[in-house]
Amino acid sequence: MQADLERTLFDEPAIQRRLDEIAGQISNDYRDRELTVIAVMNGSLMFMADLLRRIPLPLKLDCLSVASYHGRAEPGGEIIFKQVAPDVAGRHVLILDDILDSGQTLAAVRDKLQQAGPRSIRSCVLLKKKKQRASAVDADYIGFEIEDEFVVGYGLDFMERYRNLPCIGVLRKDLIAQSR
Fold first, then answer.
1. Residue 15 to residues 18, 50, 51, 58, 168: CA-CA distances in angstroms?
2. CA 93, CA 47: separation in Å to the nearest integer?
3. pTM of the entire structure?
4. Which of 19, 44, 50, 100 supports an S-S bond with 125, CB 3.0-4.6 Å?
């Protein structure tokens, strides 16, 4: 599967080092408070598991399944919530997502959770693309900033493949074109 990558952006040791740094920031910001983590599935699974093991705080975990790509290389216009949002009333909430691309998913999740009356909401993304966003949203914690390229690995997929790569890399353009 790594042969399907045009190039590797971040290898496993680089990802793990960055997760240590982010976990330290989150731990400092939330010290002595219970944190409710809402992971946006499926892309954030690897990121969530590795990051949360590094955060020595009492926390509750819930997952929210949404869809926006629908098997394409570009995000779609509609965000579909596959289940009811978890109860976050009065809690400090941290949203974990794999990538901040158009901003539509993160904005929709934040808006949905905000309706439940949390004490605070922050967000953490593994990757943030350097691009103009359809929704005016940003993340509070960012693993890496990347160019506007289609990336896979470490939970990120293309057509439900490549999630299990231990690195993050740019998928070859010919493979994306073949799927159209």
1. 5, 10, 10, 24, 9
2. 17
3. 0.89
4. 100
CB 122 within 8 A of CB 110: no
Dihedral class, residue 106 (left if φ above 0, else alpha if ψ from -120 to 50, else beta):
alpha
In degrees and rounded to multiples of 5, residue 84 shows phi and psi of -70, 140
Q: How many CB atoms lie within 10 A of CB 16?
A: 13
* Closest of 137, 135, 86 to residue 112, by C-alpha: 86
68-117 pLDDT, tens digit each: 654 545 555 555 655 566 789 999 999 999 999 989 889 989 998 999 99
End-to-end CA distance of the chain: 20
Cβ neighbours around 136 below 10 Å, total: 7
Alpha-carbon radius of gyration of the chain? 16
User: What is the maximum span of the chain, computed from C-alpha positions, in angstroms?
Assistant: 51
Strand partners, 145: 128
Catalytic positions:
101
Contact in structure between 119 and 146 (CB atoms under 8 Å): no
In this structure, how many other beta carbons lie within 10 angstroms of the beta carbon of residue 2? 11
How far lies 137's CA from each of 6, 38, 133, 171, in Å? 29, 17, 8, 26
* Contact (Cβ atoms closer than 8 angstroms) between residue 44 and residue 126: yes
